[in-house]
Amino acid sequence: MNKQNFKNYLLAALLVGLSSCNSSDDFTNDATAAAKQFKVIDVTHHDGHPFSTGKASNTTNGKYLANPGGGVMMQAFYWDVPAGGTWWNTVNTKITAWSNVGIGSVWLPPVSKAQNGPFSMGYDPTDYFDFGNFNQNGTVETRFGSRTELESLITKAHTENMQVYADMVLNHNSGGQLENNPFTGTQTYTNFTGVASGKFPRTSADFYKNSYGNNDEGSFGGFPDLAHVAPNVQDWLWKRADGVGKYYKNTMKFDGWRFDYVKGFAPWVIKDWNANVGGFSVGELWDSNVNILNDWANNANSSVFDFACYYKMNDAFDGNNLNILNDDMMWKRNPHKAVTFVSNHDTDEIWKKELAYAYILTHEGYPTIFYRDYEEWLNKTKMNNLIWIHNQKATGTTSILYTDTGEYIARRNGYNGNPGLVVYINNSATWQERWIQTNWTNAQIKDFTGNSAWIPTTQADKWVKIQCPPNGYSVWSINM
User: Fold this and answer.
1) Pairing mode, if any, of strands 421-426 and 186-191?
2) Rounded CA separation 104/51 (Å)
3) Can you give the residue ranges of the Glycosyl hydrolase family 13 catalytic domain (predicted)?
4) 124 labelled as ligand-binding?
């Protein structure tokens, strides 16, 4: 190559380099401009404090402690867990490991003897005070085990400083004896005066139809429908010192309640239970309407499962339109009464579960993890990482920074000195990058999932470019 050609080559290379730099700057400016066109949505407006289960942590035993982001609940069963009385022992062996990764509470299935005896999942209760210690309905132990094993599990959880929630079926009973029912003029299976424990005897006067009316808000499965207006029912469920609620709390040492099928009776029932018994409370109100969920939670003075969030996540992730995550949910309406979940023993529709768990474990509310998702179906290391992120980084109110069909970016705004986080969810098949505005000035940040190796520094105006892997998520916060 002669000297003149070499000079021409250098000039061309320089021009190409300048053009490349200008193109990069243009791309950066365009990306920033595109991000700035999205109007940030400040979803929640409160002082930033996390969801509270109403019980202070014990800081003396070195076990699970409440964290800046609040707690995580484990649903410690699934439908048709192994029969044979081994389940309480199985859960007992998991408690320490769950505590070590930051799970703060355990939700157990109904613990009392039910009509189907050794095969029942407990949702057809006969004797609320038979915990597997009376020979009744064809068995001494329940499907899950003995009273001694149940008490050992609860003690173990408390040793690990975890709370234990009982699944309470208050709408209906099953397994009563046949009796003449003066209210129906027929014979009905409403005689529970012979329960083995001798506690909470019931007759047809305690079930609809009776002297108080023909029905309440709902019945289930043709089972005798408890009439909570009946004085005997109120006394034995929540008023008496030796009644169901206070016995479970003070003798069995349960810390709270998951109430089954609360559509079947008025919210005042749970309000009265909570006022008389106390403890954490969450209702299963199977409805996607946020107004219905919020009204019930307020009237019952209770938390409620966020079915609105559940169905929106299903539509967003599996329907490939993350714009749906802008829609209303219980955690947005009332974050301190919303219990979020991805699947449970009754419903398991969401296919892209990892994205859904990334969502609930970085957002407000009280996230619940389903036993089979954690122990069998998903990557436990990734789940443990998300639990840690929830506990340590998911603090403060929530702002949505960007959404389109394939991308969703939200910011937790921090609380009480904790910096919060930015979560990026990518439902597309390729890596994505986007400029977003943080709450941090000139701060080095990193992805605490390890999915991205970037360690960028936010600009003086708090803007920074972050990335997210395909069909995955990244969670960014100050590198400290």
Assistant:
1) unpaired
2) 12
3) 71-412
4) no
Q: For the domain bounded by 68-395, which CATH number is listed?
A: 3.20.20.80
The total number of residues written for the chain in this structure: 480
Strand segments, DSSP code E, in 220-323 are 225-226, 256-259, 280-283, 303-305
Point out the catalytic residue in the list 179, 284, 287, 348: 284
**Any binding-site annotation on 225?**
yes
99-118 burial code (b ≥16 CB/10 A, e <16): bebbbbbbbbbbbbbbbbbb
What is the rounded CA–CA span in Å between residue 30 and residue 9?
A: 31
The structural domains of the chain, with segments of one domain joined by +, span 68-395
- Residues linked to residue 367 through DSSP beta bridges, in sequence order: 340
> Where does residue 455 rank: exposed (0-12), middle (13-18), buried (19+ CB within 10 A)?
exposed
Please give the Cα distance from 17 to 6 (Å, whole number).
Answer: 16
Mean pLDDT in runs of 10 for the chain (480 residues)?
41 38 46 74 97 69 72 97 98 97 97 98 98 98 98 98 97 98 98 98 98 96 97 98 98 98 98 98 98 98 98 98 98 98 98 98 98 98 98 98 98 97 98 97 98 98 98 96
Q: Would you call the peptide bond into 209 cis, given omega within 30 degrees of 0 as the criterion?
A: yes
Active-site option among 260, 354, 364, 407: 260
